[in-house]
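User: tokens in, sequence out, please.
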């Protein structure tokens, strides 16, 4: 796997955008997706998708529900709430 470059401020350059992740969630045939299912649709690792989803959750753009000891499902937040 090629190394991901860094920006001048030290942050990693991302191969995907927030909109890429949101588009996968919006296009899903099911109401929720796991991190792994989102990652299958994008050219990055599950770990990278998890960090992006977590940040989107902190921003209120996606919602999350824990399912099991280490699992979670994600969906696009209802902006009317």
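Assistant: Sequence out:
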């Amino acid at each position: 796997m090629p190394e991901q470059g860094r920006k001048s401020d030290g942050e990693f350059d991302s191969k995907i955008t927030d909109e890429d992740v949101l588009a996968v969630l919006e296009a899903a045939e099911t109401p929720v997706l796991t991190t792994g299912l989102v990652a299958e649709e994008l050219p990055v690792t599950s770990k990278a998708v998890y960090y992006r989803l977590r940040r989107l959750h902190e921003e209120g753009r996606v919602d999350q529900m824990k399912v099991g000891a280490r699992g979670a499902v994600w969906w696009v937040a209802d902006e009317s709430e």
